[in-house]
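Thread: adenosine monophosphate complex, take 2
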Amino acid sequence: MAKAIYSTHLGFFDILPDESPKWRALENIIHEEAAKFNFEEIRTPILEQTELIKRGVGQLTDIVTKEIFAFTKGDSNYVLRPELTAPVVRAYVQHHLGQRGGSQKLYYIGPMFRAERPQKGRQRQFHQFGVEIIGSDNPIADVECIAFMIRIYQRIGIQNFDLKLNSVGDPESRDRYKEVLKDYLKPNLSKLSELSQNRFEKNPMRILDSKEPEDQEFIKNAPVIGDHLNDESTEHFTRVCELLDKLNISYTLDPLLVRGMDYYTRTAFELTSSDLGSQDALAGGGRYDLLVEEIGGQPTPAVGFAAGMERLLIACEELEIKLGSEKSVDIYLVTLGEKAQTWGIETLSKFREMGISATMDYMGRSMKAQMKDANRENARYALIVGENELETGLLTLRNMEESEELQLTIDQVLGKFRS
Ligand code: AMP
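Output below.
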């Protein structure tokens, strides 16, 4: 016998049959709510060119410097996609989606890959759902994004979350703020972490996102962007807050929130939950008005968010929220002997054509073993058929829940399920 091969790659998980119903239930909720918002689904490849992710997510981000799974094939460099905003924008530009008119309101569900240190709530393959609204700079788009995100958690019954909100400003405000921030950090530059020192010239705002202990003291007292926004950015942010208030969506202003990607402009937000432990971020997003142009399109404003699906399911577990139904089948055919099996496989298709789920034993087991299996499969009914039953035409239909049995012809059984 060949040696068994088991996947032991930490951070990569199988979704097993007992768990897949909750994944499907979650996906169904996302599809249903997206339809209510009139968002359209987009599916892009798992692989993207490295250059896109570097340009889109940012050369100096943790994702690009440490976390991408990259490989080369022929002359091309590829990565397993670590996020979907840059790929969706690539698709938007490549297929001229803007020409469909109006803003493109897109959503997605799918796996992402980041070579992070695995721990609870942090995998190397994880799943996100998210929205990208491309083409509008109206705060309505920001708020629709946030409202959709919140709606998913509320519908599932996760109420205990905190929406953190900030504006990271438009390019003019950011340039102004970057100078202020650099002036503040410069005298202590040598005391900052090496990573932050590297970011100082090119992207000083990312220093605010640093988790390095030696940076924390300087981050805590840093000037905040909110004090350096120009009128347009302030107006935009005020309107976002006003609309959120109108929708009764509560939020906390977090002047240090800059998020992990370089592409954010103006609105930035994060959703955290105290039901989650140390990896407490459920979702995050914001505006990225410069990204479409960066990726080769016309200047086009956009806003979006991404939410971790494993984290949402962990929160469900903590709160004992059950997603998805127990496995069950409408009817289990207990067949004894080859003739009954032949009759059984034909009859299965009759039930299935009627929209009734039906199964039978594939292993030629005893009646007792088949009844046990019917129980294990949570069958609502068992239909018992041996050679005798085929001859007399009278079959035994057992209601598994009520343990009641009826002697019926197959037409009577089919009639009962049809009604
Ligand atoms: P980000 O794309 O980094 O803004 O992340 C958005 C959301 O995806 C986070 O709030 C998490 O819920 C989830 N997420 C990000 N990275 C991981 C990971 N390695 N494992 C599990 N979930 C993740």
